[in-house]
From TrEMBL:
This protein's name: Serine/threonine protein kinase
Ranges of biased composition (kind: Basic and acidic residues): 36-48
GO MF annotation, one: glycine amidinotransferase activity
Key words, A-Z: Kinase, Serine/threonine-protein kinase, Transferase
Upper lineage: Bacteria, Pseudomonadati, Pseudomonadota, Alphaproteobacteria, Rhodospirillales
InterPro entries: AmidinoTrfase (IPR033195)
SUPFAM superfamilies hit by this protein: Pentein
Region spans: Disordered: 27-48
């Protein structure tokens, strides 16, 4: 076996698919408060999610894993830890953890390396442990595999802006704040979630928002000196966390952009100069996320590329599927909506182990 993946679209051969076991509605804490929408049914409740929803989500994740295996892709699964248990560190307490449905948030695969992200929710501080058995196995099997843990953050109150603790900030104020890069995370320490990064060969694009700060981007830039690391800020999102519902590369030369979260001019210009087409994503099929879900309806564009011509799209996201079909892709429908509340969509619930490909320069002209 081998660990290596440079892009979001090279042929996928080996992947991790998350599990919903012991999935939690996180207890209130600064970063969670900022990300959970103000009208969400998650407000005011926390603890283990209903068992029937866990069973349903696990059935969907198992079906997705089986579909990938039928296509010849090796699929590994995490080993859930006791997510019911609260956390106590010298700096904070969290009354619940989160779960391990979304390996993409935690594990960043760049070439032969998997980096465990710092994370920015207190409830996700120990989530990497669910993946350690796999990473240990990869370390034993692949002599070239580099297993890295980014600096663990302290996540004291100094890492969070107190203004975001208010339950009724209002969407317009949030939009004003995020437009001015006033995010919930401060610059106290290095913070990033792996899902704030997209990989395009020699280029990494990193979203600056609630879950990744400037120091996190600087760490990534220093850690990957042979890459060009581009910081990106998308002012149209009142809850900016994770780039994979905002900017989604499909294949060399084609990238999907969320029309409500406009692409910054420096990136638009980079793509234009290199003859890439930026396509606005089709609207989501749903007006609201499913119950107890903290992600936006734009999980519609949270697709998983199996290779540069084949894309997994959530089965009910018919507009997105039609658009990708029109763009010439083979669309593989996958039922996952009932698992969205556990951490996201098809991209979120996976993490690359191996894609056949190399560190090609797809954006050579600055
Ligand atoms: N984990 C992806 C969530 C992004 C969004 O809510 O739009």
């Amino acid at each position: 076996m081998r660990v290596e993946s440079w892009t979001e679209w090279d042929p996928l051969r080996h992947v991790i698919v998350g599990r919903a076991d012991l999935g939690q509605v996180p207890a209130p804490e600064p970063a969670v408060n900022a990300k959970v929408p103000e009208h969400s049914d998650m407000r005011g409740r926390w603890g283990r999610r209903p068992q029937d929803s866990i069973d349903r989500a696990n059935a969907l994740l198992d079906d997705f894993a089986a579909l990938l295996r039928r296509r010849g892709i090796v699929v590994d699964r995490p080993e859930p830890i006791d997510f019911d248990a609260g956390i106590q560190t010298p700096d904070f307490q969290a009354r619940t953890q989160f779960g391990c449905m979304a390996p993409r948030d935690v594990l960043l695969t760049v070439g032969p390396e998997i980096v465990e992200a710092t994370m920015s929710f207190r409830c996700r501080w120990f989530e990497y442990l669910a993946y350690r058995p796999l990473l240990t196995r990869y370390f034993e099997a692949d002599p070239a595999f580099r297993h890295t843990a980014a600096p663990k953050p302290r996540l004291t109150d100094r890492s969070f802006r107190p203004g975001y603790l208010d339950d009724a900030i209002g969407v317009q104020t949030r939009l004003d704040w995020t437009a001015r890069k006033v995010f919930v995370t401060t610059e106290e320490e290095i913070l990033f979630d792996a899902a704030d990064v997209i990989r395009l060969g020699r280029d990494l694009i990193v979203q600056h928002g609630f879950t990744t700060n400037r120091k996190g981007i600087a760490w990534l830039r220093r850690h990957f000196p042979d890459h060009r690391v581009h910081a990106a800020h998308f002012p149209g999102d009142p809850y900016p966390a994770h780039i994979d519902c905002t900017l989604v590369p499909l294949c060399p030369g084609l990238i999907l952009s969320n029309p409500t979260r406009p692409l910054p001019e420096h990136l638009r210009s980079l793509f234009r100069t290199n003859d890439w087409q930026v396509v606005e994503a089709a609207p989501p099929a749903h007006a609201e996320p499913p119950p107890l879900c903290y992600s936006s309806v734009w999980l519609s564009m949270n697709v998983l590329m199996l290779d540069a011509r084949t894309v997994c799209v959530e089965k009910t996201e018919v507009h997105q599927a039609e658009q990708l079909d029109r763009l010439g892709f083979e669309v593989v429908p996958v039922a996952l909506r009932d698992a969205y509340p556990f951490g996201g969509g098809l991209h979120c619930c996976t993490a690359d182990v191996y894609r056949a490909g190399d560190r090609t320069d797809y954006l050579p002209r600055p």
